[in-house]
Amino acid sequence: MKTRHLVSILFGCLAALSVTSCLSTDDDNDNSSGYLTKAQITQCYQIIAGNYTGNLLYEAKAADGLSTQVDTVKTSWYIPNDSTIFITSFPAKAVAEYVSNQPLKEALAKAPDQVVRCQMVFTSMTPIQFLVNPHTIEYDLEYSGSQHKVHIAFYANNTYSFGYYDTDTKALMVKMIPAALYVDEKITSYLTSAQLICFSNTHEAI
Question: What pLDDT, in 10s, does the model give residues 29-53?
Answer without folding.
Answer: 443 335 799 999 999 999 999 999 9
